[in-house]
Every structure is written in structure tokens, then in C-alpha cells.
Design brief:
- The protein has 21 helices and no strands.
- Helices cover 59% and strands 0% of the residues.
- Helix 3 packs antiparallel against helix 4, helix 11 packs across helix 12 and helix 17 runs parallel beside helix 19.
Length: 373
């Protein structure tokens, strides 16, 4: 059957179409791929679409039909493929995503970006499929030559696995920067909706250590982003700041913590010293960590705020030790350690704390080089 993929004889298309009526799924799958290579006429594309969307067809046939539709410029199938992208079958969804990327259809790019950013919104187990498709889009690679994967016998599993190959993912910023409005919209909807999607949206925005992030579309690295990239990331995050600020009072500690971190990374004025102190006073791990991150960010972005943060957090060390949990005082020490000289007077006091863990943390903080500059 693989030889039929490239036979110039016009009768080959008719033979391949007849093969679709065979009972053996492997033969049907091979016929789909052959038709995808040979024909781009409306009836053939429509036939392949029907095979891809038909839940009664064997999965291998549906995936092969989806792959077959992934040819550059073949846009007639785009609406059907977009509908199929969220079919609930991970392997089929991946095949559809790769097919959409290979068509180069502009309508498909925002859909792939959205699914890479918030896969759970679309009932996807993870972002792997959309990210693979974006890598293909970025590389502008056509469908791999299926003849490379055909050996002595036709193993359909190996064949389709080979067709799902994709290049190493590069910098996706050139793809998403032209669609920041669409990304703002999907994140805004998730932040408003609540639940797991709200947490996913916050996690995406909180994915970089040095500023706002964009989840899987802009993975965290040790390297500082370029000025252009940092500006593009802010172009997505800043319009969401009002919605994020509302979450500073959310009953979920994890949500409150993420909101504080993101606002601090944005340099938003609503990440106030009082908010940092409240987070430290809570003493729970997520809010204590958020207070530390916020203090660090405020010192970097608004150095003049370090004194105000120290003044807000320092009194947590002065409370009656019988009433104040030691974890609260430990959180305060960890926040003050991020503030440099403004935190030193309070850390000096904490060296005499009754709890050994707090005392040790204060001593270690005072020994940090940044306490002296």
C-alpha cells in the first residue's frame, strides 16, 4: 500500500478510496495517508474529514485521516479539525493539533496557543500536544515522509508514531506576541471563573522568578528575558492586574499567595507593605513564601519601599511570644532578610527569640552579603 502513496497513475486515487472500505483498519489508515498525499480536491478532503470525526471508526483510522489533512494550505478542513481538537482522545487531539500546525492556517494559531497555556480548560491532560504543534508551526515543517517508517511490514502504530515526530521546541514568543489580546481574554475568563482554572491562570502568570510569566508558552529559565520579551509578557499580565488584585482577599490561601506574587512582580501598587505583612502574619507555607517573594520583588522594583515593608513586618517579632506562633515569627525573619539594611534592626532583635529555629534563621539572615548593601 505504501507504494500507492506516490504512483503517478491517476487510477491510484480510486484504488486508495476503495481501500477505505476494507475491513482491516491498518489498510484504511494507509489509504488515508495515501489520499492525503495525492489529492486536495474538495470531495477528498471532505471524505477525510468524515473519517476523522466519525467516532465509529477505529482510532488508528481517525488519527491517520487527521494526519492526512495536515498539508500546507489545506484550510478547508480547519473548522472540523478545530472542533475535533477537544474530542477527549489524547492521541487524536495530538494528531489534530499537528495537522493544524502543518496547514499554516492563521485561524488555528490562537486555538493552539490557548490550549498550550491552559490545557485543562479544554479537557486536555497536559500541554504536550499543543506545544508539539507550536514547535511544528515555528519550524514550518511539513508532514514527515511516511515511507521512512514503513519497513518489511506495515506497522500502523510505528507509522503514526513516526508521523507524530516534532522538532525541538524553540522560542515561541514570535508566535504568541501577535496574539496577546487573545491570551489576555482567555486568562481573564479563567481568573473570573474560579476553581482549578483560576489557579492554572495564576500559575501561568507566576511562572517566572523575575517577572510575570506565561506558563508553558514562556518557560522559566535562569536567563533574564530581553527587554522586548519582558515588555511582551507585561503586555499580557498588566491588563489582568485589576482582576488579580481582587484575589488578594480570596478565601483560598494558595490563590491569595499567587495573586500577591504576581502583583509584586508587576510592581503593582496594590502589593503593599501591609499586604506583605498580612501574608507573613498568616504563617502558612504558601502565604509565607509569597511574602518573601513580594518583599524581594518590591526591593528590586521599588527600593524605597524596603523601609516601609520592614516597618510593617518588624512588629510581628515584637508580639507576645505566648500568643504569636513561632512560624509567624520565622516568616517575618525570612521576609526581613530580603530587605537588606532596613531589615537589620529587626533581625538583630530576632537573634534573641525564644525559639531556636527563629534564632538560627535570624543569625543566618544577618550573615547574608546583601544585608550590608
Amino acid at each position: 500500500m505504501s507504494a500507492r502513496f506516490r504512483i503517478a497513475d491517476p487510477r491510484a486515487s480510486a484504488i486508495l478510496k476503495r481501500a477505505l472500505t476494507e475491513r482491516v483498519p491498518e489498510i484504511q489508515a494507509a489509504a488515508c495517508l495515501g489520499l492525503g498525499r495525492r489529492a486536495s480536491d474538495g470531495p477528498t478532503v471532505a471524505w477525510l474529514v468524515r473519517l476523522a470525526v466519525d467516532p465509529a471508526r477505529p482510532p488508528i483510522v481517525r488519527r491517520a485521516a487527521a494526519f492526512a489533512l495536515g498539508q500546507p494550505g489545506r484550510t478547508a478542513a480547519t473548522p472540523a479539525l478545530l472542533d475535533l481538537l477537544d474530542a477527549g482522545d489524547a492521541e487524536l487531539s495530538r494528531a489534530v493539533a499537528l495537522a493544524l500546525a502543518r496547514t499554516g492556517e492563521p485561524r488555528a494559531l490562537p486555538a493552539l496557543l490557548a490550549r498550550a497555556l491552559l490545557p485543562r480548560k479544554f479537557a486536555l491532560p497536559d500541554a504536550e500536544g499543543p506545544l508539539a504543534a507550536l514547535g511544528v508551526w515555528l519550524a514550518a515543517e511539513p508532514l514527515p515522509d511516511e515511507a521512512r517508517f514503513v519497513g518489511e511490514g506495515l506497522d500502523p502504530t510505528d507509522l503514526l508514531a513516526g508521523l507524530a515526530e516534532f522538532p525541538a521546541r524553540g522560542d515561541l514568543a514570535p508566535l504568541w506576541r501577535a496574539h496577546t489580546r487573545a491570551l489576555v481574554d482567555i486568562l481573564s475568563e479563567a481568573l473570573t471563573g474560579g476553581g482549578a482554572l483560576r489557579r492554572d491562570a495564576l500559575a501561568a502568570l507566576d511562572s517566572r522568578q523575575d517577572g510575570p510569566g506565561l506558563g508553558a508558552l514562556e518557560p522559566q529559565t535562569e536567563a533574564q528575558p530581553s527587554a522586548d520579551l519582558a515588555s511582551a509578557l507585561r503586555a499580557v499580565a498588566v491588563p489582568l492586574a485589576d482582576r488579580i488584585a481582587i484575589l488578594l482577599d480570596d478565601p483560598d490561601r494558595e490563590v491569595r499567595a499567587a495573586a500577591l506574587r504576581v502583583l509584586a512582580k508587576l510592581g503593582d501598587a496594590r502589593a503593599t507593605p501591609a499586604r506583605v505583612a498580612d501574608a507573613a502574619a498568616d504563617g502558612s507555607p504558601p502565604l509565607a513564601e509569597a511574602a518573601v517573594v513580594a518583599a524581594r520583588q518590591l526591593r528590586r522594583s521599588r527600593p524605597s519601599m524596603a523601609m516601609a515593608v520592614a516597618a510593617a513586618v518588624g512588629p510581628l517579632l515584637s508580639e507576645d511570644v505566648a500568643a504569636a506562633p513561632w512560624r509567624r515569627r520565622l516568616a517575618a525573619v525570612e521576609v526581613l532578610a530580603e530587605l537588606g539594611p532596613p531589615g537589620r534592626p529587626y533581625l538583630d532583635r530576632a537573634v534573641a527569640d525564644r525559639h531556636p529555629v527563629v534564632r538560627q534563621a535570624a543569625r543566618e539572615s544577618l550573615a547574608r552579603p546583601d544585608q550590608h548593601r
